[in-house]
Every structure is written in structure tokens, then in C-alpha cells.
Amino acid sequence: MNETNSRKKVPISPQLSSADQVAEEVVRRLYSGRYVAGQKLIEADLVEELHVSRGTIREALRRLSAEGVVSLTLHRGAYIRAFSKNDVQNILNVIEVLLGLAARTAAKKTHSARDKKQLEAYLLAILEPQKNYYDVVRVQNAFYRFLISSSENEELERVLPSLNFHFLRPAYLVHSPRVYPERLKEFELIATAVLSGDAKRAEQTARNHVIAIARSLRELPDEAFSGSTGITKT
């Protein structure tokens, strides 16, 4: 089959009108296994598949680069960022401290009925069964973002999103069936501490959550972080 005919068979995504939507579609493809770590993203293919301008694609790739999802290299283009096992552990060491700080501060500031109701809604979304891994991560990231925004700390809001959890994808695909119930309990403990205004316990439960993730990932073989997840690309 020649390249032209092959491209015609690429599933076409719904019409996208902004760089944010393009970035979301790239992330969705990463979680679904269509993209893997180290894979090159070809602008011309994205323009054809997503029906947007090259300028929109480039803006989306710049945003994904800022979030740590994509690596942009001069003269080589954009690649899905790859993380080694050591990279992941180092990043988690930073996230442990920062997420703990976000939870502690959120516990001090989450007082209004509206904020409490919103946090409860995020927790319920996490506890609800999700259709796919993308939706699992999407609702979990919404929970994390609530903690960060509730802290009202501009530096946390600037730094933590760039240390997001996209890099955990290959490891979670391997490990989630065994440990996912434990992760759900950890989210409940964090939410309970924040809602009760217990800043010390909120920080500790958030840090314990990240420590548990790091401990689980240390048990995985190095190849679990290489982008080889056993999922067939489409």
C-alpha cells in the first residue's frame, strides 16, 4: 500500500477550531496508544487529519511543549516526550512536595459551600467508572487542578501544570489493574482532609499519594517507560 492510500485511511477527527482543541486531541491519542513516547508528530499529517491550519498546529505543539508532553527540537520537529524510569522518579520527588503544598493551602482556603461542592464533584467523577484511560486521567487532573487553583499560589499554578502526569501513562497502563483501587482511596483521603480544613493531614495525604505512585513505579521494568506499552497503534 502506498503512502497516499494509507493516509486516506487515517480516521479523521471532528472539526477542531483552536490550538487548545488540537492539543487535547494529541493528548487523547497519546492516552489511547495511537501515539507513543519518542514518536514524531508530522505537521502535514496533523493538518490533514484535524482540518486546521499549520499555524494552529504549531501553536498547539508549542503549548504541549510547555506542558512537557512534546519535545520541540530545532530542525527535527516535534516528538512525544519520552521519560526514563529515573526521569519519572525525579519528577515525582518534586511533585510530592508541590502537591502537598497545594493540598495544605487548599485546606486553609476551601471554605465556601461552592468550593466544597466543586471538590466533592471532582471526587465523585474520579470514583465513577470511566470508559477509557484518557477519561481516567482527565478527571484526576481536574482534581489536581482544583487543589492548585484553590491554593491561590501563582507560582504553584505556573510550575505544577508543567509537571503534569502525562509521563505516567505507560506505567499506569501496565500497573493500574492492581493498584487503581488504592489510588481511589488516596483521592478520598485527600478530599476529606481538604474539606475538613485539616491542612497538615491534607498535605500528608497528598504526599503519601505521590509516594505510593513512585513506589508502584519502582517495581516496574525499565521497558515500561520506553513507550512500548503493548498497545497497537492505529
From TrEMBL:
Pfam families: FCD (PF07729), GntR (PF00392). The keyword Protein biosynthesis does not apply. Residues 16-83 form the HTH gntR-type domain. Keywords: DNA-binding, Transcription, Transcription regulation. Transmembrane segments: none annotated. It comes from the Bacteria. PROSITE patterns: HTH_GNTR (PS50949). One of its GO terms (molecular function) is DNA binding. The keyword Methyltransferase does not apply. This is HTH gntR-type domain-containing protein.
